[in-house]
Design brief:
The chain is an alpha/beta fold. 38% of the residues lie in helices and 20% in strands. Strands 1-6-5-2-4-3 form a six-stranded mixed β-sheet, with helices on both faces. Strand 5, helix 4 (129-141) and strand 6 (149-154) form a beta-alpha-beta unit. The protein is globular and about 40 Å long. Bound molecules: ligand AR6. Ligand AR6 binds next to strand 2 and helix 1.
Length: 167
């Protein structure tokens, strides 16, 4: 597996799947979630609503992942995962690691070769970037997968540098 770092906008990536740092409602939000739904168009939300009705009446649990169409994105798929909200008092890193593992498992189920991840939980959900980067990279490295190209797409220079230090 090759791991690469990109500074930029995940919605522009030419990969099989982009991962969305969603919330359990799957119905959109701010940050990377808002950007993906804006650029990908209404087909993504439509599939999210269907998934809620068919499988996730109570919402997608934290640490799990599920795929929809990529709509108008270059990526054919969006894999939605729900990161944990950062906590000072409770160690939720296993849930954050699960987001990366489960996203790769969904990609494997679909037979995908390339995937782009944002820094899940490291925005609105408040996870310190250095720690989020460490969990992201170590989890992806230690996951058995057929995905060959894993791209971390970091929105800011600070986030890029945090991932660079870990790599
Ligand atoms: N491309 C790549 N990275 C981005 C982009 C983009 N277009 N936009 C933001 N980021 P966040 P979370 C970075 O807040 O912390 C939503 O409302 C951002 O700078 O998107 O998991 C959901 O609906 C940060 O480094 O996700 C949830 O309610 C990283 O992506 C909640 O936010 C993640 O920030 C999830 O919060």
């Amino acid at each position: 597996m090759q791991i690469t770092l990109v500074q930029g906008d995940i919605t522009e990536q030419d990969v099989d799947a982009v991962v969305n740092a969603a919330n359990s409602s799957l119905l959109g939000g701010g940050g990377v979630d808002g950007a993906i739904h804006r650029r990908g168009g209404p087909a993504i939300l439509e599939e999210c609503r269907k998934l809620r009705a068919s499988h996730y009446g109570g919402g997608l649990p934290t640490g799990q992942a599920v795929a929809t169409t990529g709509g108008d994105l270059r990526a054919r798929w969006v894999i939605h995962t729900v990161g944990p909200v950062y906590s000072d008092t409770e160690d939720r890193s296993a849930l954050l690691a699960s987001c990366y593992r489960e996203s790769l498992r969904v990609a494997d189920d679909l037979g995908l070769r390339s995937i782009a991840f944002p820094a899940v939980s490291a925005g609105i959900y408040g996870w310190p970037m250095d720690d989020a980067a460490r969990i992201a990279v170590t989890t992806v490295r230690s996951t058995a997968t057929l995905v060959e190209d894993v791209r971390f797409v970091l929105f800011t220079p600070d986030a890029y540098r945090a991932f660079e230090r870990v790599l």
